[in-house]
Design goal:
This protein has 8 helices and 7 strands; from the N terminus they run H-H-E-H-H-E-H-E-H-H-E-E-H-E-E. By secondary structure, it is of the alpha/beta class. Helix 5 links the parallel strand 2 and strand 3.
């Protein structure tokens, strides 16, 4: 979105090289395809979803994170002010949160959202992580107060532009750094007619960022939302520990293990698989046809992308 929101400041990176902001491990977000081509894919996927009545959350607010780093060109040219950061896994300028207490930097973030909406999406459902995973102050009360104030400020900004939109509040930071009564306290101050809590940690038991133990599962069941405030849950429920204790789960794991190892005769498993690969990044702007090959042998499962131009993709998409 930086290239669309700030075209005079941020260039498209060379997909053949590591991103300038790339770091070791999962912090290396270097490109498989160019951002231009990824933008075309995103546009196609979202249009497909919208045509079928689906809603797609559009990010807004404090989006600087380990997986969405601020480009060096923006930092060097615009020189944003930052919120305090007292340790934790953040502290590099590319992952620091801009000081949204000031209108200038709140507007700078909002410009990214508007650019993404204009290029890809719709403002019907606006999603924010707030100050997710942030330890802005060592004093817990001060840290929480800033998070609450920033969330309210972000929501007010979004509603001032799109008063009919729904706000989707990510529950990750609620799980990680808040206590259940603090979440319920915040929600009492928000409008349930236009806000949805997205709890994707229903099996969560955790410590806060200062190492204080949070007793019991910190999820929607303890936030006083049931029957009172819109919420949804899921995503990480697949990793719920209790699911591993049932005989059906054990049977499923056994079947999965046998499938992964193949049969005693050495044959590959018969479960159909699909994969997608391309020998070179497609040219931005070129229309791409995806051809998926279904195979009963993992070693033979391939999918290739060519630059032929039928009006609709063929095969499985």
């Amino acid at each position: 979105a930086f290239q669309k929101a700030y075209p005079d400041v941020v260039d498209y990176p060379d997909p053949a090289k590591p991103l300038p902001e790339a770091m070791p491990g999962y912090n290396n977000r270097s490109l498989f395809w160019s951002l231009q081509f990824r933008g075309l894919l995103r546009k196609s996927v979202l249009d497909y979803a919208f045509d079928r009545g689906l809603m797609v959350p559009e990010d807004f607010g404090t989006m600087s994170h380990w997986y969405s780093r601020t480009p060096y060109q923006f930092l060097d040219t615009v020189k944003p002010d930052f919120l305090p950061q007292e340790g934790g896994c953040y502290g590099h300028p590319t992952d620091r949160v801009w000081d949204v207490r000031k209108d200038k930097w709140l507007d700078a973030y909002w410009k990214l959202t508007e650019a993404s909406i204009a290029a890809y999406g719709k403002p019907d459902l606006l999603h924010t992580i707030g100050l997710g995973e942030r330890l802005c102050y060592r004093d817990r009360a001060a840290n929480l107060r800033l998070k609450v104030d920033v969330l309210k400020r972000l929501i007010a900004k979004a509603k001032s532009h799109y008063p009919d939109s729904r706000i989707l509040l990510a529950g990750w930071d609620f799980y990680l750094t808040w206590h259940p009564e603090e979440v319920s306290g915040l929600l009492k101050e928000l409008d349930p007619k236009s806000t949805i809590v997205w709890d994707y940690e229903v099996d969560a038991v955790s410590n806060d960022l200062l190492g204080n133990k949070i007793k019991g599962a910190n999820n929607f069941t303890r936030w006083d939302v049931i029957g009172k405030f819109p919420y949804t849950f899921g995503l990480f429920i697949a990793y719920e520990k209790a699911l591993d204790r049932s005989s059906s789960s054990a049977s499923a794991r056994s079947r999965t293990t046998r499938s992964a190892r193949g049969t005693s005769s050495g044959r590959s498993p018969r479960t159909p698989t699909f994969s997608c690969s391309a020998t070179s990044p497609p040219t931005p702007g070129a229309r791409t046809r995806w051809t998926w090959t279904r195979s009963s042998r993992i070693s033979a499962a391939t999918a290739t992308a060519s630059r032929r131009t039928p009006s609709r993709p063929a095969g499985r998409t």
